[in-house]
Amino acid sequence: MPMRIKRVTLFAGHYGSGKTNIAVNYALYLRSLGKPVAIGDLDIVNPYYRAKDSQAELEKAGIRVIASAYANSNVDVPALPQEMYSLTEDRKTFAVMDIGGDDRGALALGRYMPAISEENDYDLLFVFNRSRPLTRNAQSAMTIMREIETACGLPFTGIVHNTNLGRETTPKTILDALPVVQELCGISGLPLLFTAVRSDLAPLLPQNIGEIFPMTLQKTIW
Fold first, then answer.
1. In the chain, how many domains are there?
2. What percentage of the chain reaches a pLDDT higher than 70?
3. pLDDT at residue 132 greater than cutoff 60
4. Rounded (10°) angle between helices 171-188 and 138-152
5. What is the CATH number of the domain that holds 205?
6. How many whole angstroms separate alpha carbon 12 and alpha carbon 122?
């Protein structure tokens, strides 16, 4: 699956958009290409870092996982480890960053923004899920996109389509959302980079919808 690849790839979106799932799968995809990869959690609003549930799998694949020491605990401490700066400082490693939901979570990215902007080898991707209450239409999604951009200080560079209903997702679920995705791309001026789908659904989708990114879902997410 050919996709443009930047040194730093950041996934952001509203709560429940599926960005964590995509971030984990994207890190594994980069590693499958033989690239040195690290994945970091910047979600200080919700410290229950679900990507950490995949830590064993990620580390087995040779991916470095950077998460708060309080991830998956009952301690609510809005702190990020100092090691997180290595994602912007080590330019030989491909970094995947999971940004906290909505504009409050995106505030955490602000401290890394100068280095990311200076290097200018990044994608900040908005994960769109039409099944979520606050992103039912393109205008609502656009509002959230602008709020996140203002909070983190970086402009989005692309859109990832991830409309799903968990295990109940069908090809129709995804295809019915395509007109809304296309409208969002139109009003934002951003390209649709890929549509993320469960791996078993990928062969059932028509090729003319663009790049398809098959994923293995984390067990704790659905």
1. 1
2. 84
3. yes
4. 60
5. 3.40.50.300
6. 13
